[in-house]
Design a protein that fits this description.
Elements (H helix, E strand, L loop, with lengths): L3 E3 L1 E6 L2 E10 L2 E14 L2 E8 L4 E7 L4 E8 L10
Antiparallel strand pairs: 1-7, 2-3, 3-4, 4-5, 5-6, 6-7
Amino acid sequence: MDAKIVRVECYAGYKGAERPARVLLNGQMVDVAQVEDRWYSPGTTYFRVLLNNGERYVLCRQEAQDVWTIEAFRAANEDQPPKR
């Protein structure tokens, strides 16, 4: 999967944009239900997130450009209903 630039709204704490809160997908904002993991690389921060629709994404924030990309995606498990 090639990285796709996306719009992300963040929770802003004392460090500024600390973690993703909503992601714009297919023209609709989808809430982040949970940040499952986060890790750092020079100049970038990665977040594995579970969205309210049950899908999981790895989002990457390139800090110098303040650009967010989707690095990985996993569809919702059809056996489990989406979280609300």
